[in-house]
Specification:
The complex is a heterodimer. Chain A has eleven helices and no strands. Chain A is an all-alpha fold. Chain B has one domain: Rossmann fold (3-Layer(aba) Sandwich), CATH 3.40.50.300. Classes of the chains: A mainly alpha, B alpha/beta.
Chain lengths: ~300, ~250
Amino acid sequence: MAKFNFIASLNGEELNKSPLRQLWRHFKSNHVALVGLWLFIALTILATLAPVLAPYGVNQQHSDALLLPPSWDDAGDVRFILGTDDLGRDVLSRLINGTTYTFGLAILTALITTLLGVILGVFAGMSKGVRSSILNHILDVTLSIPSLLLAIIIIALLGPGLLNTVWAIILALLPQYIHSVRNLVVQELSKDYIVAQWLDGANSWHVLSRGIFPNIYEHIVVIFTMSLSTAILDISALGFLKLGAQPPTAEWGAILAENLGFIYLAPWTVALPGILLFFAVLATNLVGDGLRTALKKRKAI
Amino acid sequence: MQPILKVQALSKTFKIRDRFFLRKKFKVLEDISFCLSKGETIAIIGETGSGKSTLAKILAGAEVSQKGQILLEGKVIEDDGKRKTSCRDIRLIFQDASKSLNPGITIGKTLNEILLMNTHYDAAQRQESIKNNLLKVGLLAEHQDYYPHMFSGGQLQRIALARALILEPKVLVLDEALSSLDPSVRAQTVNLLLKLQQETGLSYVLITHHLSLVKHMSDQTLVLDQGKVIEAGKTQALFIKHKSKITQRLLNC
């Protein structure tokens, strides 16, 4: 039997079977999730290359073309594919630039949250007794408040602004994050191979880096996608409420709020950022969901 | 001859939750004493909940006792609940090999980690040692690039064995390590263990339900019931002649 495996390994088949490869195989078989991933990648490219890709400047005004409908309309102009708003700004350029703010900033927010959340979560998970108990109960209290409400409270203290929004969302997402990571770590700590590792003479750092981390980082990615979708919604919601990004910043939520007055006159100025927001959250959730199912499938084998 | 492992009056109590904030004391082990010579096997049998597994964990250092001493080659390694040296001469093999190996990293990495933490070998020496140990338990050197989920149950138990043997221990504690295997694989593993015992003079502490294994492998037998040793002696003699009813019941089933 061993020999048989060995031959297979020479063909390179067995080498493909690392847990990560397995995960990718399961993920790949889920087509909806794959579409989500492509959408996600497209949005990321848009967010990073926005100034290069946008045909016009964000605040470049065209006084000859005010409230122009999208180009497929009879009254449209091919220069402005998705039309213009009341100040004659190209909607397409503004939306592309908005990706950087809403989507890109949300990724940045979620990344910082991940960094802080993993550090604190691991600390909470590894500590025992009174210390962990206190941390847990404080977290439980903050968990009972919805993240958007918590963000609004923090904004009320810090004052409106895009950067303050980011901090507020980080602080609002953190309790949930720490909680999830803590649960993962505690779950791992009770497993046999961790006990075996302690018996091998490992210290806490070894157990953490070699024992726990290789087995939970995929779960952390899942938590990351969940907090990312929350972050996108929160950034745009705060922008819409005029607590976050201030006009003329091209943040999707802010664009929506700015043009709300023209909803009957120029519905494209409101509908397009809404649709983009929908796709951004959908893509993130599809990727997260696909990852979660793939992880579950891998565990079942 | 000096015994390799000597356990003297080992006791352990757990505090378990009673009503409200009260804690109740629960004696898991009480006054356990036994000796084990080099190249010998001692079998520990008993019903579920008799403290066998706790004893195994204490011997291996995964838990601490409260009273009593454990001596290894005449040196005290645990005295009244204080583990004196972080010693790797007593190694534990777990009940379920698939759970005792880290699923996220390859076998080679797991073994390499152990050597890194406990020896001063350089990379080439570590590689050599990993290779030798895998060959010793009947696997191939190429298996070190495999992840645990790619092995069968019997192979995993062999890897667990390699993991225990890589630090050249003197005593191996087998906590129901053979129970989860099917008969033919179990026979293979038993033969492997006996061969290793002959070659290197390892001592085994065998904790099991299988009486045929006890008969086949062990020199001495210890019968535990509710944390107490109720009978002990040479396996052969014990199977023929025993005093207590509990032993009778265990042997009958």
